[in-house]
Structures are given as structure tokens and as C-alpha cells.
Amino acid sequence: MPLYGPQMHVPIVHHPAYCAEPPEDHRFPMDKFRAVASRIVEDGLLAGDKFYRPRPAPFEWLALAHDDVYVDQVFAGNVSAEIAREIGFPMKPDIALRARCATGGTVLTGYLAMEHGLACNTAGGSHHARRAHGSGFCVFNDVAVAIKVMQADGVIRRALVIDLDVHQGDGTADIFAGDDSVFTFSMHSAKNYPVRKVPSSLDVALPDGLADQPYMDQLTSILPELLKDGQYDIAFYNAGVDPYAGDRLGRLALTREGLARRDRYVIETVRKVGLPLAGVLGGGYSKDMCELSDRHVSLHRAAIAVSNVRKSATV
Predict the structure, then answer these.
(1) Cis ω on the peptide bond leading into residue 207 (within 30° of 0)?
(2) Bridge-based pairing state of the strands 234-238 and 159-163
(3) 197: closest CA among 135, 268, 245?
């Protein structure tokens, strides 16, 4: 039974290829992408009863944010063993296709956000992929590619990246280092991966075990000021759910209610100033796919709730 009634149109992007086949017993929960899509359908969150389906990102898009030699290597399946170890996956055809589709999905999410004000992907947030190569389960940096594509098309000039994954967005910081057209904000666990962090435009490193209220105190003191100071055309929001207290790879202590409050606050605050927002999934780690998918869909629920409130206010 759907949990949501008629709602304002919030485009949600998904592709079946978001799920590849990692090695057996791999700690990356690949099945979560399928589980997230299923939960979105079951909960009646789809406007028009369909996902928007992206095209796999072509070489030309990916080379805007990544070294073209590395992109060639991924396409050809000949990534070096050293880089494959750093990524955490062997570069099989389905892994490469998954990365291309997830990146194409975030590009599409960005364009849909410009059209509708708000859109969400069911994947994305691969923020450890750097210009030269992938890392930390991330083959291509989908948010960086999306921003570069939209800038090249002349659709946007300046972008804000709001990265609330528990891990620092080192790859995004690396790609946009010295680029004043993109402001990268990462709020993350200080002692978590990566060990060697790349400075973002603004990094907020949090102590282990930080709970809901002090986390929100930090966020609410920063985000309005960022929006006030920047003349942005779009915001990309990495809504990683690994700050949750029960996450396998997190070190913070947010509750499920805290995550939902965080997502609602970010989306409301960004949309209140009229800025389009593109939401991506980010990190989340658990062997319980039912729990993990429900945790991730907090992003999509919050997007629809904010859209419904804004729709009611204009009626």
C-alpha cells in the first residue's frame, strides 16, 4: 500500500545497471541500489509511476572531470591492479557500466533539478574518485562530472556541493581544487576514511560519537551562511546515511530521526532561497538491505515532503 498520496512532481532517476556483481562476500552493499528502487515503488514515491532512466555517461563527459587515460582504461577494462585495489573492485564490464550509468544518472538529476527545482538519483555520491583515478569504491566522480557537463553546456556557472557523507569528499575537493566556480563543503567524521584528506572549500571534521543535536547545531550554523554568500546556480547534495549510529563504516551517532531531520533541513533551506537541488545517495553500509534501503530513502521522502509543502504554500 503506498504511503504517499498525490504529490508535486519530484523526478527520481534510476537504472537497473546501478547493480553490478561484486566479488562474493564483498563489503560494498551493491544490492542496496535495487532495494532502494523497490522501496521507492512500494512506498508510492514515484510521480507518474516511472523512474527517469539515464544514458551511460560517454567518454567525453567523463574526461571533463577525469584524466582521459584513466577513462580509457576503465572503458577498456585494463585499469592497473594497483588502482583496482584502491578502488576496491576489479574493473569488470558490469562494474564499468555501473559507474557510467550512475554518473549519467547524476547528470540527468542535475538537469531535472534545473527544470523542476528538485530531483533525486537512486545512486551517486562517488566522492572519493579523483581526477587521476578512482578510489574508495568510487570509479567516477558523478557529481563532479555533472557539474562539468552542465558548465560546458552553459546551463550553470557556479555550483555548491553539500557533502554530508560520513567520509570526507576528497575526490571532489581534488577535482575542483583552485576552481572558484565550485564551492565544496564536506562535513564528516574526522577520524574516518580517507586518512589523507584533500582540503575542500570548507571542511568540518566531527568527533567520534557525535549525536543528532550537536550535528544539527553545526549544520544550521553553516549552511545558511554558505547560501547567503554564494551566487550559485545549483546545489548537489550528497545525502550519505553512514553518519547513522548503526552503520558498519561510520563513526558518528545519528539516529534515523536525526538523518531524516538533516535531509529535510538541507532540502528546505536550499529550496527556500530558490536554488535547484540535485540529491544523490552517498554512502551507507549494512548487511540488512531492508534497513539500509529504508535509511537511504529518507532523501526521497524528504524531497517529496518539502515539495508538497511548497506546493501547498502556492495554492
Answers:
(1) no
(2) parallel
(3) 135
Three-class DSSP category at 63: coil
Q: Is the pLDDT of residue 313 over 60?
A: no
> Grid coordinates standing for 136?
574508495
Instruction: Encode burial over 52-76: b for 16+ CB neighbours within 10 A, e otherwise.
Output: bebebbeeebbbbbbeeebbebbbe
Start-to-end CA distance of the chain, whole Å, equals: 28
C-alpha grid cell, residue 131: 581526477
List the beta bridge partners of residue 159. Answer: 182, 234
DSSP 97-138: HHHHHHHHHHHHHHHHHHHHSEEEESS---TT--SS--BTTB
Q: State CA 234 to chain mean position distance.
A: 14
Measured distance CA(315)–CA(311) in Å, rounded: 6
Instruction: Name the strands in the sheet holding 182-189, side by side, starting at the edge strand that comes first in the sequence.
Output: 12-13, 118-121, 277-280, 234-238, 159-163, 182-189, 202-206
157 pLDDT higher than 50: yes
Average pLDDT, the chain: 93
- 304 close to 45: Cβ distance less than 8 angstroms: yes
Give me the pLDDT at residue 29, please.
86
Closest alpha carbon to 147 in 182, 102, 104, 97: 182
Confidence (pTM): 0.94
Under 8 Å between Cβ of 66 and 83? no
Distances (CA, A) of 285 to 94, 110, 227, 257: 21, 25, 30, 18
Bridging pattern class, strands 234-238 and 202-206: unpaired
Which residues, 6+ apart, have CB-to-CB distance to 21 below 8 Å? 30, 92, 94
In this predicted model, what pLDDT tens digit does every residue of 119-147 receive, in sequence order?
999 999 999 999 999 999 999 999 999 99
Query: Which distant-in-sequence residues (6+ apart) come within 8 Å of 277 by Cβ?
Result: 113, 117, 118, 119, 234, 235, 236, 237, 266, 267, 270, 271, 303
